[in-house]
Design goal:
The structure is a homodimer. Chain A is mainly α and about 300 residues long. The first copy, chain A, has one domain: Farnesyl Diphosphate Synthase. Chain A is about 70% helix and about 0% strand. The first copy, chain A, is built from 15 helices and 2 strands. A two-stranded antiparallel sheet of chain A has the order 1-2. The interface between A and B is large, with 53 and 52 residues.
């Protein structure tokens, strides 16, 4: 995941790579095979989720928050997969012509370009149902039924009309409008923040050793990291190139979307991202070295190049 | 609900009207108000679910199956609402230009016509999350956490890629193709059958008195009724008019969709619907008079005019 260090003796890189492989294996297990009827729908679902090598930020946050709270990764595979599946479905729908109208995602044709619009809509719909199904079904979670319900509830709220879907609705209604900084942050808090927050909370929720105060500190961490992620996304849309991004550079500006660099200037946005990173670290000051992956992840989020 | 008898002294009509009012009140309680941010999204969600007076077949099946199994309706309000919300989201997405491209639904403009395509896609997405959320949260269900998880699991499977969404994918891929009868039935078993089946099972699932054998008989009943519902839908597309239907008459034929009347002829389709109705009644032969609403409902489904 870290673009700046590709050596294999970087412990953070190895941990993240391990988490990525875990969630990719879980996704492969949980997604119906492309041989299962209706084949073209299952092909589209697998295409959107498994191919293309996403960054897997949300699954990595699940595992890293779990490690901080003393939960083994094998208990978190389906939770990590569910978060990535919700994220993938939202990308399929966001890319549709009626929404952001993007042809390129992770360096490949978007789902509605590789298949067709109707299949893309249905693949997104079916993926959402699958995310909740696997939290119901996975025995490896080892949570009692009450905790499992809390996990599902957290994911429904983070995904719904006062979470991710609501944020996307506000985003689309903001095109061409002048938002101020607090309105822009409120939008991102829902659009990307809600799912990032859910990743951290759902990763740590089933911990016996995590006190409500610790969960609250992790929640604060996730909010800073979630916002930093979006600020850096806006920065990359200005300074990166299409090949590195895997999606069209400059598309925010082209679509007349409000961004942090537009409101604050590029340099101030970069300072703001760093400030959010330090605030995120501050939320972890009472945690031991098992929180190091969360710390490194916060750094990665503001240093990444795609 | 019965189009052929509008007298208020028809007990079936009164029971059904009571169930409809119950679920409408539950939907109004569970859907975020149109004053909640993002307002336009919540307006669209409410427009699609509450306005327009749907038949509420799935909620009525939930309550009627519950009554058969000795469950009070107040324990079923959120389950009935969840089924209707999943149904409503599927209608929003099915009506989109990339899918069936319908402008009229329940006699009003479809959601993407009344709002816009992006809002309609997101309203559907957010509704799906809401359906699962309310089963997590409603205390009136009085189910233990294990049963609640089973309810959510049943709804995820019925909604997903080997349920409703999968059926719609097969349907869209069948346009202009020659399906035989068993292929047509397999498609409808997923597209509308899965959710009708889930309505009956979820209505009776939390019953102490319902044996596995009784649940199986209810499941058989729901499969006959689900298929009868679709056969009658196809018949109405041929013999009814746009005003009565609330959607364009003849749209199946215009869209070159395979139908029962096309494959079997109109008269044989009407005979088939009646035969399925009698098979449904046969599945209820071991039940007492608390199953009468299910019996009447089966009759209504093959007698309805819209």
């Amino acid at each position: 995941m870290p673009a700046t260090d590709t050596s294999t003796d970087n412990p953070f890189k190895q941990v993240v790579e391990n988490y990525r492989q875990r969630v990719d294996a879980a996704l492969d297990r949980w997604l119906p095979s492309a041989d299962t009827t209706p084949k073209h729908l299952h092909e589209a679902m697998r295409y959107a989720v498994i191919g293309g090598g996403g960054k897997r930020v949300r699954p990595v946050l699940v595992y890293a928050a779990g490690a901080t709270a003393g939960i083994n990764p094998e208990k978190l595979d389906s939770i990590a997969a569910a978060l990535e599946i919700i994220h993938a479905y939202s990308l399929i729908h966001d890319d549709l012509p009626a929404m952001d109208d993007d042809d390129l995602r992770r360096g490949r044709p978007t789902c509605h370009k590789a298949f067709d619009e109707a299949t893309a809509i249905l693949a997104g719909d079916a993926l959402q149902a699958l995310a909740f199904e696997i939290i119901c079904e996975d025995e490896a979670i080892e949570a009692n039924a009450e905790t499992r319900l809390k996990l599902i509830q957290a994911l429904t709220i983070a995904s719904g009309s006062i979470g991710m879907a609501g944020g996307q609705a506000i985003d689309l209604h903001s095109v061409g409008k002048k938002l101020n900084l607090s309105q822009l942050e409120a939008m991102h808090k829902l659009k990307t923040g809600a799912l990032i927050r859910a990743s951290v909370i759902m990763g740590a929720m089933n911990s016996a050793e995590c006190t409500p105060q610790m969960l609250d500190q992790l929640d604060q961490y996730s909010q800073h990291v979630g916002l930093a992620f979006q600020v850096q996304d806006d920065i990359l849309d200005v300074i990166s190139d299409t090949e590195t991004l895997g999606k069209p550079q400059g598309s925010d500006i082209e679509q007349n979307k409000p961004t942090f660099p537009e409101l604050m200037g590029l340099e101030a946005s970069q300072d703001y991202a760093l400030q959010l990173h330090h605030q995120a670290l501050d939320c972890l000051k009472d945690f031991d070295d098992r929180a190091d992956t969360l710390r490194d992840l916060s750094a990665y989020i503001v240093e990444r190049r795609n």
